[in-house]
Amino acid sequence: MTDGDDVARRISAALAPHGLILRGGFDFNDSEFAPPGPSGLPAKSVVLVGNAGAGYWRHFQAWRESRPGDLENPLDTWCRVIIGTVAEKFGARAVSPSDKPYLPFQQWAMRAEGLKPSPLGILMHPEYGLWHAYRGALLFDAGIAIPAPDKQNHLCDACVGKPCMKACPVAAYSEAGFAYDDCLGHVRGENGAPCRDRGCLDRNACPYGTAYRYPAEIQAFHMAAFARVC
Question: What pLDDT, on a 0 to 100 scale, did the predictor assign at position 48?
Fold first, then answer.
């Protein structure tokens, strides 16, 4: 087992030039499922990588300028390149949320950072609000003892009125869950321009983490991907 604080600092330093950040990590218990590490044996630990706010965007855009305009899944490709390079530097195996079979990134994230889902399903962060993401993870053959997160207050518990459940024109989010078809139809339809141009209205209605809110350009990029792929 290695010094988790030191490993975390060094990984953070390697990610920083790309606008990505370390999002916590943990050692797997002997009795739980762990995907293969770099050796092919079950990994002993995982470190999550992601972003908070728009810090990654200019780095991604600079990389994208030298790639074909029709490159499929460019953000996913960029993340794989960057996180894969960092993984190689630290002797880890890089994995992505889009890898199949899908890995339990949501559960890993809740465990690594002590977060809970918002009514929209996005994990609520006490500082970043809903404006963050997990872009990949590093799997290690050794335990690295990343310090456990402090107990976090779940902001949604104290939120009066739940504005994130009231802004969508087609009420895509409700206590019954996410009305996927209604959301997709609206985004693709003639009345969906506000969502296509500025992002999910429910997500933007959340009062937390507004300093990290993605600019309209980023939200439009993600919404275009949603409308095209789904």
Answer: 98
Cα first-last separation, the chain: 42
**Is 51 within 8 Å of 82 (Cβ atoms)?**
no
Closest CA to 212 of 60, 59, 55: 55
Give the CA angle between residues 36, 2, 106 to the nearest 5°: 45
Tokens read off for 212: 């990290």
Burial class (CB in 10 A: 0-12, 13-18, 19+), 92: buried
> Going by C-beta distance under 8 Å and a sequence separation of 6 or more, which residues neighbour residue 33?
42
Q: How far apart are CA 209 and CA 125, in angstroms?
A: 8
Structure tokens of 101?
């079979």
C-alpha closest to that of 136 among 224, 223, 23: 23
Phi, psi of 26 (to 5 degrees): -165, 165
pLDDT band at 32 (very low <50, low <70, confident <90, very high): very high
Its pTM surpasses 0.85: yes
User: How far is Cα 222 from Cα 174, in angstroms, rounded to an integer?
Assistant: 22
